[in-house]
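re the bet — no i am not wrong, look at it urself. input seq straight from the record:
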Amino acid sequence: MKGYAGKLLRVNLSDGKISKEEIPESMEREFLGGRGFAIKLLWDEVKKVDPLSEKNKIIFSTGPLSGQLLPSSGKMVIASKSPLTGGYGDGNIGTMASVHLRKAGYDVLLVEGKSEKPCYLFIEDERAEILDASELWGKNTFESQDLLEKRHGKNSGILLIGPSGENLIRISTVLSQRGRAGGRPGMGAVMGSKNLKAVVLRGTGSIPNFDDEKLKEYAKKAYEEIKGKAAYPFWMRQGTMQVFEWCNENNCLPTYNFREGVFEFSKEMDGYVLEKLEVDRKGCPMCNMQCGHIVKDIKGERAELDYENVGMLGPNLGMKTLAEVALLNRMADEWGLDAISLGSCIGFLMEASEKGLIKERISWGDFEGTQRLIREIGMGEGVGALMTKGVKSASEEMGKDSHRWAMHVKGLEVSAYNCHACPGMALAYGTSPIGAHHKDAWVIAWEVATDRFSYNKEKVEKVVEFQRIRGGFFESATVCRLPWVEVSFGLDWYPKFLEAITGYHRDWEELYRIGDRIYALIRAYWKREIPAFDRSWDYPPGRWFEEAPSQGKLKGIKVDREKYDQMLSWYYEIRGWDQNGIPSKETLNRLGLGEVSKEISL
């Protein structure tokens, strides 16, 4: 099919074999790309393995929109069996690596095996090599980025891990371009387990599209439409940080390990403070609404901020200024730690200290102590060793009812939205295919604007709709969702883009069907890899059911467990899954996944 290279590059680090493989056109039609390709490959090739063993595989996957001269198309998906959750794990990342992989002539890079010594991959068009990374091992992500740019060119696409990934810390992520990150469920640890420090990509070719002239026409109009949107100027001023003030006003801000929804120091770190501290801005390739706001941290160093990281390292820990948070965020990026999970892990330790469950004393807002904890977590030392496998594992080791305030779903820490009074967003977290992440269905703004306290079926339908668009289409196309989400760029553009690229018309009904196929296969993967996987895995943290906030206009409100349970049942019904959350044989057959049922005992 046009618009695809139709090629997968397979690299085996154990024996050094590098090979090119054809991607079947049926896979392009049925799974689109990105996340779709990733789950199909993992289902076929990664079965019942230890996620940190050489038998696991890590997949760098693009879609037909990746690398195109279209708004915000510089994305790729990084996926593997997750060492943090034990199930399917992925994350998207905006990076020049996406563009270069496509221009080098590949849709997917798949890495398997394990190198005997630290290595990195260098791929330039037809050339692919496994090179020595001894000089890079132990260095942070910024230092490593600089060295690789000097060696291979500043414009190279570079994906790499920091010391935490090398140390197999399971909240480690993959970094690019000094602050771009992707792969929250431990993709950095998977690279580390393979002694793979980095992937460097350079491509000089072009993507074989169906109608380049039509695509150029669409692109010109699309870029103009985005810049003309009413929300565009404010977005350019604050980016995702505009959400900070909104969350505080609506009692959704993660505060003191999600205990509260409002923060007394919110005015010291909201989007208006960001504007005052900003010294630069950057974005992904082909983006005209850059979300990367660069500020000077408390030590005068550059740090890239967005809302999620600020929410989790700021109010969630009781920090008092944005400049402090910026330093913590830069440290997370340098170490290669996921800032969201890191904020949750440190918040858990602060609460454990407050409750006397650990001997170490670290109080809310302890800036110096938090820096020490980041280093300890990155090294797996001291009290930080407790967090090497995330908050779920830490709570199981600690006991004493700490599981009630371990903020995760399926082992992945909750991102920065407190849902005591948002049952729809709680359901979105509960049913996210990778664990508690907002990217699949950020339904909270719609929920607050309509009827945030209801538990009706309409709300469940909205969660499924958003998952189909965000987690199904955008994660597989693969392109950024922010133009649609933040400035109301029209969804009707995307089938047009796809048709100009592939020559094949897909309406939204078909794109929804592709999304449903991907979600069903991910769900089946969880069941195959974790036989005990059932309905109980789809509930948000106990804190939202059991402990109401004591501050703010919505104090005293919490999620009703019985009503949430009804919403979850409706969710399964809409999806065509049984009441344990497993796709039925009929649903799998309808989605063309009939063979899958044999492996999950249906």
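see?? The chain has a mean pLDDT of 97. told u. also The chain has 24 helices and 17 strands. so pay up
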